[in-house]
Amino acid sequence: MRRRTYDAVVIGSGSIGVPTAWALARDGLSVLVLDPLPSTGQGSNKTAIGGIRATHSDPAKIRLGLRSLEIASTWRERYGDDIEWTTGGYAFVATGEREEQVLKELLAVQVRYGLDIAWLERRELLDVVPTLRREIVRGGTYSPADGHCSPLLFGHAMFRQAKAAGVEFRFGEAARRIERSADRVCAVATDKSLYATRTVVNAAGAWAAGVGEMAGTEHPVRPDAHEAGITEPVAPFLRPMVVDIRPSPGSANYYFFQLATGQVVFCVTPSPSVWGFDRRETSRFLPLVARRMVDLMPCLANLRVRRTWRGLYPMTPDGSPIVGQSKDIEGYVMAIGMCGQGFMLGPGVGELVSRVVRRETTREDDEVLTLLSPHRAFSRAEVLK
Amino acid sequence: MARIEGHPILQRTWGDSFTFTFSGRPVQAYPGDVLASALVAAGVHVLGHHAKDRAPLGIFCANGQCAQCLVLADGKPVKACMTLAEPGMRVEPIVGLPHLPESDEARPMSEVERREVSVLVLGGGPAGLSAGIELGRRGVDVLLLDDKSRLGGKLVLQTHRFFGSVEAVDAGTRGIDIGASLEASIRTLETVTVWLEATALAVYSDGWVGILRQGRYELVRPRLLIAATGAREKSLAFSGNTLPGVYGAGAFQTLVNRDLVRPSERLFVVGGGNVGLIAGYHALQAGIEVVGLAEALPVCGGYKVHRDKLARLGVPIFTSHTILSANGDGRVESVTLAAVDEQLRPIVGTEFSLACDTVLVAVGLEPVDEFLRAANEFGLPVLAAGDAEEIAEASAAIFSGKIRGLEAARRLGVTEDEIPEEWHALGEILKSRPGATMPKHPAETRTGVVPVIHCTQEIPCNPCASVCPQKLIQLEGPDIRGVPAYSARDGRECVGCENCVAVCPGLAITLVDFRRDPAMPTVTVPFEFGADALRPGSAVVLVDTTGEELGEARVEKIAVRDRTALVKVKAPADVAGQVAGIRVRRAAANARLAEVVEALSDETIICRCERVTAGEIRAAIRAGCRDMNELKAITRAGMGACGGKTCTSLIARLFREAGVALESVTPNVRRPLFVEVPLGVFAGLREGE
Hints:
The complex is a heterodimer.
Chain A: E1 5-6, E2 8-11, H1 17-26, E3 31-35, E4 51-52, H2 59-73, H3 75-79, E5 90-94, H4 97-112, E6 118-121, H5 122-128, E7 139-143, E8 147-148, H6 151-164, E9 168-171, E10 175-181, E11 184-190, E12 194-197, E13 200-202, H7 208-214, E14 222-231, E15 241-244, E16 250-258, E17 264-271, H8 285-296, E18 304-315, E19 322-325, E20 332-336, H9 342-357, H10 363-371
Parallel strand pairs in A: 1-12, 2-3, 2-13, 3-9, 5-15, 13-20
Antiparallel strand pairs in A: 4-8, 5-7, 6-7, 10-11, 11-12, 14-17, 14-18, 15-16, 16-17, 19-20
Chain B: E1 18-22, E2 25-29, H1 35-41, E3 48-49, E4 56-57, E5 70-73, E6 76-79, E7 90-95, E8 113-122, H2 126-137, E9 142-145, H3 166-169, H4 175-187, E10 192-195, E11 198-203, E12 209-213, E13 216-227, E14 231-233, E15 246-248, H5 249-258, E16 266-270, H6 274-285, E17 289-295, H7 304-312, E18 317-319, E19 321-327, E20 334-339, E21 352-355, E22 358-361, E23 365-367, H8 370-378, E24 382-384, H9 394-411, H10 421-431, E25 449-453, H11 463-467, E26 473-476, E27 483-486, H12 499-503, E28 509-513, E29 522-527, E30 539-543, E31 549-561, E32 564-570, H13 573-576, E33 581-583, E34 605-607, E35 612-613, H14 614-622, H15 628-635, H16 648-657, E36 677-678, H17 679-682
Parallel strand pairs in B: 1-7, 3-7, 8-9, 8-13, 9-10, 13-24, 15-22, 16-17, 16-22, 17-18
Antiparallel strand pairs in B: 1-2, 3-4, 5-6, 5-7, 11-12, 12-13, 14-23, 19-20, 20-21, 25-28, 26-27, 28-29, 29-32, 30-31, 30-33, 31-32, 34-35
Helix pairs in contact in B: 2-4, 2-9, 5-6, 6-7, 9-10
């Protein structure tokens, strides 16, 4: 006999839903995860490219990122699975004066938060990333403690841990309504059943606004589609994630890194944004990204592209996530609007949400929650997303 | 050098040979050779070792679809089967992961060229050419692409005469000649542009099609797309299935019939459909010994006349048998087989091994449908023609292309010509599977001259009836699927013209002439192993349709009609009607080994790109995985170079084997690109500059 009552129902089995459900179960709650897709991570998790960093400029994201980094980088020792974690660092390269200035300003903030990051002059940067085109690189920031892993393997490893901790997953089952009794959540109705619960976590990523409507509330989250690609594997030649923040017609920035298995993964931030749920490939992407990558790193010209895809960045007006309990609906918790960083923030967010649900937040948590509050003004914009 | 000289059907102008190096050793090549063919001709079968487990890799698809034959040519990773050999080229095997060539130079980049056309035809095989011709004749501007350096698709590999309808698809003519004739037709059409060495990479949601053309990237937006992309071969899971020397029948035909390279001395064929049967026959024509053919079902699924051609030449056909393993150290040395029960499970105790150096896997085809699926998903106007729509014979593909070409012209509003009702009917007939096999009636007549028709199976084919000047061969039944029969009537009788003997694609008609010597009539037998192999007086063995020996005879006379030798022998009147063929070469030597070679201990590979075993996939299925995308995430199966082209159907079998209905399994998402392309090409750098 399947249960019909849970301490918490998490909507979405992706980068946020899985670690959240796992954290809640570890903390002793009975948890159900609902996802309309056929298996875990099939929304945006599998389209993530795999970078995890703490070197943000927003203190909330820095804290969540630090915790995610700790979980990912120690995963193998703690749980045994190889998630292909590589402490390769992040290199934000500057090719123009403006970029140098932006990066140095950010650096001051990041250093203030104690992050392991420094400005490298051209020669030092070329020691870290020798394949950059010497003539156009001025220097850049380098944060050696950041890294990357396989989003597929990490996502699935957390999924297995969640199941082992007792989380129930129902795939191919879509939430339809979040039932309330007065101002508090009392159940979730799906296309197949009804589950009684006093806590619902919206972890629906790009689809979060739709889940909000089920609860009768609005969320300022809308998806922006980014295309990505992967090459054939080659012998290791690139340690860090390389991010080029110089805008160029069609793209705000782009970034790429080499997986532990040898493939190079790359992604562009389109400019202007491509709003909507369309995840179909376009003819624009490859010529645009290839020109930029080959210009920055000429040796990439001979690297063969194997596959491309398109994923959704659930954006918020100020570029920061929305995490916390609703003031208007008791028991309705949001972990949404990750702005394309759900994969790297997820493990930290999951634990935070569990503390929110159990009302066991720390003072540090409360600072983070203030910054990420669903009820904030959304007026400030992060310098660098 | 394992080059084929004196092929009975094919000729190749070799040109002046040159050398390139492989691992520093010189390898001889001829102009037009791809690296893979030159290497195989030089006896090099192992082209590299997989980065994951160092397993030896050899050619597999020979068609640019997989990446098993990846090598480094002058420092760049390329597919050996698609890269032309050049004098002085330095080719190295890839051991582990290749090193990216260094480069620190900025080079100029050009914008991607974009152009619009009315119709873009993907594929220059039988279907694409036929569609292009119908459109070109109506003045429609067409761009037709093919990834090879010549047109014809798989027709260029087909040395045999085609089945089907003479009127509609030139049945009775060899595939290679049909290809040449279609090419000649399309080349006369002014509105048709042909791009060779042009590979479609992706159909994008914005309506543009990305194309790699001779090292450059171009985008084309058609008003209508015709996917005539043909088929790819299905793979099979068995122990040792990735050993160099195990490959698809199409790959084999490419080496043998396109490049005239003899990759094997002793060949074993898995699969008794037309592809396997024909490939076996092509091997014999190339002077390769065929040590056997295995078919899991009790009868071969291909045309009986194709099966009989092999049987007459002494090839053992093991029906109700399956391959357990290909065995060998670094390349195939033997194959182990077993009989199967009614559920197609191997029967313990029936195992035996045969010595061979090559295993051809011919277990069916599946459509190359990536572009069709993408266009449909994106709501772009698209038609599919030939195998891309439905797997069938090449004759059906020709006709399907014709229908789709006219349909496309109608959709574009350039013609109001209706598609004739009978086209659809014939289109269906040409696609039909072989029907019933009729009992054979021994000929009663022992006077005059009579054709003996050894073709007893309902297949869509009518050349014999079409070429009879007396119109005395008729098909029994309402359409061309009827079994042909000869009868003298209305005062007319066979005049002994031998047209039917020469034209029959199944080599299944002989002529018995009692006129000179009723006790020892003369039998005319078709023979496709080169007139040079025989001369008057040569001793031959007479065999019936199943290959049973009927006695010996001497060749009386030989005539040649379009590369088919018509050989006259004398046979006693009581067996003359049973003579269906002659055998010159000895029957294949018994290749059975004294001992059964045990299956290799390493597990069967399902995903050859990422070396994922059946065991890993079964474990995931047992753990509850019902989504191929999740399976991919966990095991990497389908994530490699070929993008699931090879393993998807094998994984489907593992689900079925585990008792999981395929309807409950989510299929994997296919994504561009169709084949890998360097970033520099997308950036607008020209390759080689």
